[in-house]
Amino acid sequence: MQSKTRTAPKRSRALLWAGGATILLVALSDLLLFDVDAGISVFLVALATALAILILAWRRQRFRWGVMGFIAALILSLPLIEAASLLSVMLSALGLGLAALMAVRLVPHRLERMPEILLRLLLPAPIRLLRDAAALRPAVQHQAGRKAALWLVAWIVPLGLGAVFAYLFAAANPLIETTLSALQPQVLFDLLDPFRLMLWLIVAMGVWALLRPKLLRRRRRRLPEQVVAPRDSSWFGSAAILRSLLVFNALFAVQTALDLTYLWGGIALPDGMGHAEYAHRGAYPLIVTALLAGAFVLVAMRERSPARDNRVIRALVYLFIAQNVLLCLSAMLRLELYVEVYSLTEMRLAAGIWMGLVAIGLVLILARIWLRQSNGWLVATNLLALTAVLYASAMLDLSAHIARFNVEHSRELTGADRSVDLHYLWDLGPSAIPAFDRLIPRLVPGTALWDDARAIRADLVRTLLDGPQDWRNWSWREQRLKDYLVMHAVASAPPTRHNGMVVVR
């Protein structure tokens, strides 16, 4: 009974600390995020949340774990400094989730369980906020809550009578009346904006789930009393797997031979078919083929599979995976050939990244079989590879890379068959400005293409410089572009000044 009495005030103080931190973070989010374009403000909110998690971890006497979680959250939030995008926000949320789990030592020992743990942490967030908010009422009955309540009550009379006196003084003194009228009451109504209230609610639910992390309970499955040895079924047993691998390797060998001949060897294709058409028709179907092949290998070489220890089957599996890796590399080469003819787009770049991930996944399947690891190990290593690729994508200005690639492989610079698509470069946004600066000097002055390129560049410069000049919108990527405009200008265009910066109109 005495232990419960001691535990209640301790839990109440923890709730009050978490509640106070949540209120402060909601207020900070309102100041930095509401009605403002995303920028460095998103990173500052993430950093403040990570600091709050660290402080509460210190109060729980788990400071070392809190520091490790803070470092993880900081590293995964760094892409927000480069540019606040959906991908960088997702990575930051992952980092904050890891920090919250580390603060209470709920990080799973096996990495493959991390997605499940994060879902069990975030899914019940709205219910947990309401449940813990109800638990705050009895917390006020304890000493810490009573002091806070008495402090608030003590301000009721001074504020109430002070408002009455201020009203009377305003009626008697025109100067005071003018001063009070300048305090527009419309500001109070702005606080009731539905979108603002929605922001408060979303931030409060997310922050509370991070400051008071608890996992959603799951039902325990009863294990069978007797483990039945796996049977070698007739339709997918060792014989069926062996025959399947023989057939599949033979089919894949035909495709591999054709790719080695026409793609990698550079031999001319039959009349009426160019390399671009050959590449375009095969890039995406071959990736689907590789995915199906990987799924087949996982099922065939699953744990306790009768074919897992068969040397012949293992050798055929190694050959099958090797052919699939070559298939992915061929698909990437097909995509490259197609891009050289038609241009690089965001979707084609994403497809190339996806093909690389599939190839990495196949290599990891091979490593899993060779090292006799579990499917959980395979999931964990694939998650690490996916996170690394997403992190690199968030840190790089892919739009600038696409624009530069299309300009450098255009007819205007290399004499290739494809002319640069100015309108697509326009759609890429201000990141394409350096590519335009490389293109414009190579164009013939006075031509329609030259005029269009200069006009589009001027519009992109206006988009960059005439946007909201708020420090909360700042990003490292945008700052680099502005610094670039200070240092570079198209020689053929008359320079003008915008806020002290030399630009080209």
UniProtKB/TrEMBL annotation:
Pfam families: DUF4153. The chain crosses the membrane at residues 39-58, 65-81, 87-107, 148-170, 197-215, 235-258, 278-300, 312-333, 353-371, 383-403. Keywords: Membrane, Transmembrane, Transmembrane helix. InterPro entries: DUF4153. It comes from the Bacteria. This is DUF4173 domain-containing protein. It comes from Candidatus Devosia phytovorans.
